[in-house]
């Protein structure tokens, strides 16, 4: 808001690329900050936020895990500033999150905090585009049966520990199902490029790539997710459930398998609506 004021903008609108529940939590956070004592993770009763299901310690957004952290303080500040705008554009739609949108507009407690109009303008995401040929991902997918492949991707920044990567690899192998796995470097390799094939492959069980050669494809480079989800051979999506991934999967009609560790992220409160 301060930047908009410095530029003398007559109308100030906020765009929230995430979902309506994230917006509800964000604008209600300054109230929680005043009425809740101690850390949210230690509360005995779930937090009640208008328009949202009660939020227990395990469903808290990451930004709420440590009240002394600068990220939390910034979120409280943003929650205070959003209602100072002329309106809010949010990346969702009525049929998906109607209850929360109604609460933002009409709930006596939440609308008094929100104060300004909320406009759902979603789903907004990257559109499908032509992929340069040849591309080994699509060459492989073209050979698979319809709806037979599980797409596994835990986000552009989603890295696993060595133990998690190995366990997920064993799970995929023992399932006997076909898969495309976009695998980032293990989280302990903080200084190594995520596209370093050698470092990524060391996080897999010995012989995994050879044993799964006929049923799986491991990708260590960036992958065109929208195009992959649009492919007819994809039957499911194991996802960290960032909001962009959720929207892309929903709009392509691909069922989501939730990576449970993701539920404390920004999409968490929205996902609990559907789980």
TrEMBL record:
Gene3D superfamilies listed in its UniProt record: Glycogen Phosphorylase B
SUPFAM superfamilies per record: UDP-Glycosyltransferase/glycogen phosphorylase
Top-rank taxon, per record: Eukaryota
Pfam families xrefs: UDPGT
GO-annotated molecular function: UDP-glycosyltransferase activity
Keyword list, A-Z: Glycosyltransferase, Transferase
Protein family according to the UniProt entry: Belongs to the UDP-glycosyltransferase family.
PANTHER family (alphabetical): GLYCOSYLTRANSFERASE-RELATED (PTHR48046:SF1), UDP-GLYCOSYLTRANSFERASE 72E1 (PTHR48046)
Protein name: UDP-glycosyltransferase 72D1
